[in-house]
Amino acid sequence: MTIESRKSLRSRQHQHHLEPSLDMDSQKELWLEIRSLGYSYGARQAVRDATFSVKRGEVLGLLGANGAGKTTILSCISGLFPNWTGSILLDSRPFLPAVDANARSCLGIVPQELAIYENLTARENLELFAKLFGVPKSSRADRIQTMLEFAGLEARGNDRVKTFSGGMKRRLNLAIGLVHSPSLLLLDEPTVGVDPQSRNHLFDAILRLKESGLSMIYTTHYMEEAERLCDRIAIVDEGSIKAMGTSLELAQQTGDENANLESVFLQLTGRSLRDE
Questions:
Q1: Which residues touch 58 (CB under 8 Å, ≥6 apart)?
Q2: Among 192, 153, 189, 145, residue whose Cα is nearest residue 171
Q3: 144-178 burial, b for 16+ CB within 10 Å, e for fewer?
Q4: What percent of the chain has pLDDT over 70?
């Protein structure tokens, strides 16, 4: 990647600062492309020839049961699992965050397992991750305050995280993933184990990010979450993408345009019980 293209990418990255996007046509362009992605844990193939794309400003849902391969797909994209096969492109360029610091700076991650330090305050957590991701010192304090307000934690910013409820920790987890203004956000079941109020706050926050033009991949096994938040849905089962499209398009693929998402999902993945 040239110096000019890096500057251009960073410029686009910092446009996603929770302001509404002005160029709606550019959001229709492909931003992330996954081609024939594969990953194995030893002899077990966890991801099989997964191919999909994410447009600018789009929320793509990966809908699947526990163990379907959703988290493994995100781990490959994020660079946590570097030894995958296939190709990953961001803005039509190879995307390798495991070895490329510039690629990592474009990526925000909200993992299923909380990535926060409980003996630090919420503000200290955000400051730590802001430094790690290279947020300029001149704008760091303002950015941290913006993220505390975004997460609804401005009144608790100086409290240690170990005193927080599960929902508050989830909201902080999201804020940490956004503190450096990424251009692609990966959310791995971000509402697991939260109270209804925090869950609704997270939904509203994600919809605000969607309106700002931020591209996101959202994994879930909850049908209502996928329908409420995602522009398109990819149904994942046994490491493969079984079908992808809007809820209506998925129903049409099964031959029943009146089917709801749950019946489509069961038709494509079967009704057998799955191990957790």
A1: 27, 31, 215, 216, 231, 232
A2: 153
A3: bebbbebbbbeebbeeebeebeebbbbbbbbbbbb
A4: 88
pTM confidence score: 0.87
The b/e string for 103-127 (b: 16+ C-beta within 10 A; e otherwise) is bbbbbbbbbbebebeeeebbbbbbb
Under the banding of pLDDT at 50, 70 and 90, the label for residue 14 is very low
- CA torsion, ordered 15, 25, 57, 132, to nearest 10 deg: -30
Question: Angle at Cα 226 formed by Cα 12 and Cα 150, nearest 5°?
Answer: 50
232-258 per-position pLDDT tens digit: 999 999 999 999 999 999 999 888 878
State the Cα–Cα distance between residues 59 and 56, nearest whole angstrom: 9
β-pair partners for 272:
none
Residues 65 and 230: their CA atoms lie apart, in Å, by 17
Residue 178, token pair as written in the block: 């956004």
Tell me how far apart the alpha carbons of residues 67 and 275 are, in angstroms, rounded to a whole number: 8
What sign does the CA torsion over 5, 7, 13, 16 have? negative
Q: Average pLDDT, stretch 84-103?
A: 95
Concatenating the DSSP letter of every residue in 115-175 gives: ---TTSBHHHHHHHHHHHTT--HHHHHHHHHHHHHHTT-GGGTTSBGGGS-HHHHHHHHHH
Pairing outcome for strands 184-188 and 93-94: unpaired
